[in-house]
């Protein structure tokens, strides 16, 4: 069995370690009202922060923010109004929005905040030296940041300070993390580089790209062998949540404790045959492309070209038999509608 060199233990911060008062004395503008903007801005507000959502004048999203009980400030006014500016729009928009609304307009001692280090690490945004720059990256989608906070829980977050112009950046960062609920679960200090590269790798190789490709391959294998697509859907997608929940709560150990002996034996003997050495080698290639900046350049070029490849691939999956049968089966599970994290009319 391969060995893994474990790094030195990292410091974890919790609510008991954090003074929020400095953060709560600031005016905070959250740029964007997507998944993270929705979750973080509402959590900040309910933690007592003076927060507004920053949007372009006339943005159709303004009605959603106001319906959620949040004030709105025009992007054109943010640099003059806010002490803390939080970038929660998609990474590829950071460079243009920064140049159009903030470059040359930021005041000494203001703070720029990110939830992913992409634009700073790959120099799409180059802040002046006299502002604080820090990162609070919740380890979940924004809708879960919100739902966990509402349950008086939280999701863990990574924290990194890129520039400490005032000597208060770390205190502000920890206060921010606490106010969105992450102090309840734990905050780990890292760097912009490490957060960016590990986050991209996790998304591409395991959490999104790896998981969706594995699910589709399993579904296709069963259907091509003549099994009903409904059975293939339940075995390869629906039950995945049950297994992941067990791992989320207690790691591989709890999952293997809960499943049958037959499943456990199949897990440890067949799993490594499906996800074997060749998969790990492919993962190393993916990681190298992230580290070199190749993926970032490719994605930025794709975005500026109008995202033709992304749109085509997503559309192809929208019509995949897995999705077609999944829509039908989920429609029969009426209780799912009451607990869905995503409501596109609201957030």
Q: How does the helix and strand content classify structurally?
A: alpha/beta
What integer value in Å does the Rg equal? 22 Å
What about the largest sheet?
Answer: 9 strands, mixed
Low-confidence segments: 1-7
Helix % is 40-55%
Walkthrough of the structure:
The chain has 17 helices and nine strands. The chain is α/β, with parallel strands linked by helices. α2 links the parallel β2 and β3. α9 runs parallel beside α10, α9 packs antiparallel against α14 and α10 packs antiparallel against α11. The radius of gyration is 22 Å and the shape is globular. It starts with 11 loop residues before the first strand and ends in a 15-residue tail after the last helix. The N terminus is likely disordered.
Short description:
This protein is 54% helix and 12% strand. The chain has 17 helices and 9 strands. Helix 9 runs parallel beside helix 10 and helix 9 packs antiparallel against helix 14.
Structural descriptors:
nine-stranded mixed sheet; disordered N terminus; 347 residues; 17 helices
What does the secondary structure layout of this molecule look like, with pairings?
Elements: E1 12-13, H1 21-24, E2 27-31, H2 35-46, E3 50-55, H3 62-67, E4 71-74, H4 75-81, E5 84-87, H5 91-101, E6 111-114, H6 118-121, E7 132-138, H7 142-150, E8 157-163, H8 169-179, E9 187-189, H9 192-207, H10 209-224, H11 229-238, H12 240-258, H13 261-274, H14 277-292, H15 294-304, H16 308-318, H17 321-332
Parallel strand pairs: 2-3, 2-5, 3-4, 5-6, 6-7, 8-9
Antiparallel strand pairs: 1-9, 7-8
């Amino acid at each position: 069995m391969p060995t893994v060199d474990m790094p030195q233990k990292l410091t974890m911060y919790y609510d008991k370690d954090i003074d929020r008062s400095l953060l709560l004395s600031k005016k905070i503008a959250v740029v964007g009202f997507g998944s993270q903007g929705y979750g973080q801005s509402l959590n900040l507000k309910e933690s007592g922060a003076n927060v507004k959502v920053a949007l372009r004048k006339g943005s159709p999203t303004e009605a959603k923010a106001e319906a959620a009980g949040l004030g709105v400030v025009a992007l054109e006014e943010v640099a003059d109004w806010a002490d803390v500016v939080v970038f929660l729009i998609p990474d590829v928009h950071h460079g243009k929005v920064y140049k159009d609304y903030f470059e040359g307009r930021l005041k000494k001692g203001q703070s720029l905040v990110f939830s992913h280090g992409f634009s700073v690490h790959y120099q799409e945004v180059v802040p002046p030296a006299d502002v604080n720059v820090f990162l609070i990256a919740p380890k979940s989608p924004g809708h879960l940041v919100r739902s966990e906070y509402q349950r008086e829980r939280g999701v863990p977050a990574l924290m990194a300070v890129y520039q400490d112009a005032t000597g208060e950046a770390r205190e502000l960062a920890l206060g921010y993390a606490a106010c969105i609920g992450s102090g309840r679960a734990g905050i780990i200090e890292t760097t912009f580089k490490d957060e960016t590269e590990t986050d991209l790798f996790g998304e591409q190789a395991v959490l999104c790209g790896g998981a969706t490709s594995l699910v589709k391959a399993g579904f296709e294998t069963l259907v091509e062998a003549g099994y009903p697509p409904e059975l293939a859907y339940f075995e390869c997608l629906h039950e995945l949540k049950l297994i992941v929940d067990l791992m989320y709560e207690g790691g591989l150990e709890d999952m293997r404790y809960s499943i049958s002996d037959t499943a456990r034996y199949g897990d440890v003997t067949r799993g490594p045959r499906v996800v074997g050495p060749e998969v790990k080698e492919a993962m190393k290639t993916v990681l190298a492309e992230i580290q070199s900046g190749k993926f970032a350049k490719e994605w930025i070029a794709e975005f500026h070209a109008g995202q033709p490849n992304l749109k085509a691939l997503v559309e192809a999956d929208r019509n995949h038999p897995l999705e077609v049968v999944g829509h039908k089966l989920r429609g029969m599970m009426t209780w799912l509608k009451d607990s869905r994290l995503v409501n596109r009319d609201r957030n």
